[in-house]
Design brief:
7-stranded antiparallel beta sheet; 15 helices; 27% helix; binds adenosine-5'-triphosphate
Length: 568
């Protein structure tokens, strides 16, 4: 019976293969019995398919047939292009034996409806799942992540035990471990005394801009309810800037106390230990790789053709084309700013930055720290930076239409807010917010890059003298191509123009979240400059608030985002 039981699983496997007729990974899926040991990625137990392991196999189509496998325990199909919805999974309809479901980094959509008592792992991050989490009934979960989707609504009691990073970068999730849900009617009832709604669409853990409920004249209507009726999705356009500013003082007090709460973030040490032992970060040929960078190898970087993108204070950046055509940006850190030594501290810092994943933050995929040579491998963003846009065609913000400018500013604000609210102790600070560190993605979306580098560099410099000797980390390419084939942008430190007054000496080591807000305000004012509409006047006011002389007078990025959302 065991010998040929695999036949029962044949239809499900073949219907999955039908979506991928030319996939190399499935070329070995031939013959009448998938349990012969020759089917790539298929593991059997007692003659039935118990595991399908097809991570990063360039697969498309729907994953549904694989969930119809009657005895499947492990399904790992991460980093593919699978689309469609996940069928509702429960003990009677789905795969009752399923223990580990790993579908992260695909294009899956629809809602998450899983009611499996034995499920231990659910990794669904970076897809397009929508709706709420109320249909997740998975009491035995040990590993869980739904970040980077389009989920909204309240996080239920049982799931609240997972860290905020498990929920980040969604449309509007709220409740522990994220900030409390917004009770929009209450907030407005208190500040304006009328029934206008102000449901702010949130895009990340930090974007869940919480306004505590009050005892005002309106019944409590949670954001979940607002979303359900379709009102919650709408960004408020009718409430005036005056109301926002009036709310601002109130919100600041509330938000400050929320983010200062001792349980607001996971202890970094604790997370760090987990990351080291976890599946996301492992050493591979001198590179320490993070999520999405597992395929990177030092040899491929060595063989890559590279061109200089530009030089900054922190080092030089190269565009590298890997053998498989993948583009990456490689930053070779300046030995002056990042002298050898304190390797452990550097590793700790980079491991933290390597965990940042948000659609408005450039992902660090890997780094190399060998004998004082430090290379950082980022996603390559093809459309230049805000600086290049501002400088194009004679310079000035007027090169860009207002909608594009707003979208860039709003994206950058979301990225910064994510960084500021990322669960780490001490809290993360960008420390180098300026137009050349706001990059533009494929669809022109803004991405903040180089989180915390300069702050780290200056810290290091203060505690260690630069060393004269330096041995090479293997990628000679990046060491010797400074005179590469393309024109190198002029060295542009540039940050001082955006630095807060309290950092008069330019010491990024003392940078704080408040000084980041100041720098963002400077960028905002530069981008908005010259536009005379009512809307831009509102934005100018936000810029003015950000650039208040006294750090404690400045709003937090969460508040900046709340105010900006009125205009975007
Ligand atoms: N991931 C990336 N994708 C595409 N271009 C990038 C990327 N990272 C940096 N660049 C571009 O490369 C150029 C050099 O960047 P680099 O970060 O080395 O210097 P900088 O931003 O001018 O100064 P700093 O060292 O203070 O950050 C800039 O024009 C920047 O916009």
């Amino acid at each position: 019976d065991h010998a040929d039981g695999g036949h029962q699983d044949l239809p499900a496997l073949l219907s999955f293969k039908a979506y991928n007729p030319n996939a190399t990974a499935l070329a070995s899926w031939v013959g009448p019995n998938p349990c012969t040991g020759t089917w790539f990625g298929v593991r059997c137990y007692r003659g039935r398919v118990a595991g399908v392991f097809l991570d990063s196999a360039s697969l498309a189509g729907t994953v549904a047939p694989l969930l119809g496998l009657g005895r499947i325990r492990v399904l790992a199909v991460r980093n593919n292009s699978l689309s469609g919805t996940l069928p509702p999974l429960d003990n009677s309809t789905g795969s009752p034996w399923l223990r580990h479901l790993l579908v992260s980094h695909n294009k899956l959509s629809g809602s998450l409806s899983i009611s499996l008592a034995a499920l231990r792992t659910l990794r669904a991050e970076h897809n397009g799942f929508r709706g709420g989490l109320e249909a997740l009934r998975v009491p035995m979960l040990r590993s869980f992540n739904v970040s980077g989707n389009r989920l909204a609504g309240e996080i239920s009691g049982d799931l609240s035990r997972f860290p905020s990073s498990a929920f980040g970068d969604n449309l509007a999730l709220c409740g522990p471990p994220l900030p409390q849900c917004v009770h929009a009617y209450d907030a407005l009832g208190r500040s304006s005394g009328n029934s206008s709604t102000s449901a702010t669409a949130a895009e990340s853990p930090g974007d869940s801009v919480g306004v505590s409920s009050s005892n005002g004249g309106f019944n409590k209507i949670s954001l979940t309810a607002l979303m359900a009726t379709g009102i919650g999705n709408a960004v408020l356009v009718t409430v005036s800037l005056a109301i926002t500013v009036a709310m601002f003082v109130y919100m600041r007090r509330k938000l400050r106390s929320a983010s200062d709460a001792p349980d607001a973030g996971l202890c970094f040490e604790e997370e760090d230990k987990r990351a080291q032992g976890g599946d996301r970060c492992h050493k591979t040929g001198g590179l320490v790789c993070f999520e999405g960078g597992d395929e990177l190898r030092l040899e491929s970087l060595l063989k890559a053709s590279a061109e200089v993108l530009g030089k900054g204070v922190s080092g030089s950046t190269y565009k590298a084309v890997l053998e498989d055509g993948v583009l990456v940006a490689v930053k070779r850190l300046s030995a002056l700013q990042f002298p050898a030594g304190r390797s452990k501290a550097f590793d700790r810092h980079m491991r933290l930055v390597g965990r940042l994943r948000h659609r408005h933050v450039v992902s660090l995929r890997a780094y190399c720290n060998s004998n004082g040579e430090r290379l950082l491998v980022y996603d390559f963003l093809p459309n230049g930076s805000l600086q290049s846009l501002l400088q194009a065609n004679g310079g000035g913000a007027r090169n860009l239409d207002w909608t594009a400018r707003k979208s860039i500013l709003f994206g950058a604000a979301q990225g910064l807010n994510y960084i500021h609210t990322f669960p780490a102790r001490p809290a993360l600070v960008h420390a180098n917010v300026k137009p050349s560190n706001i990059l533009l993605g494929e669809r022109g979306g803004a991405c903040v890059s180089e989180c915390g580098l300069m702050r780290y560099a200056t810290n290091i410099q203060q505690s260690i003298a630069p060393q004269a000797t330096r041995t090479r980390c293997p990628p000679e390419l990046f060491l010797e191509r400074d005179t590469g084939t393309t024109t190198s942008a002029p060295a542009s430190s540039g940050w001082h123009g955006y630095a807060a007054p309290e950092l008069a000496s330019g010491a990024a080591a003392r940078a704080t979240q408040e000084s980041d807000v100041y720098s963002f305000g400077m960028v905002l004012l530069e981008v908005v400059a010259g536009e005379g509409s009512d809307e831009t006047m509102g934005m100018v006011k936000i810029g003015m608030l950000c650039t208040a002389e006294a750090p404690e007078e400045r709003p937090t990025m969460a508040q900046v985002l709340a105010m900006m959302s009125e205009f975007v």
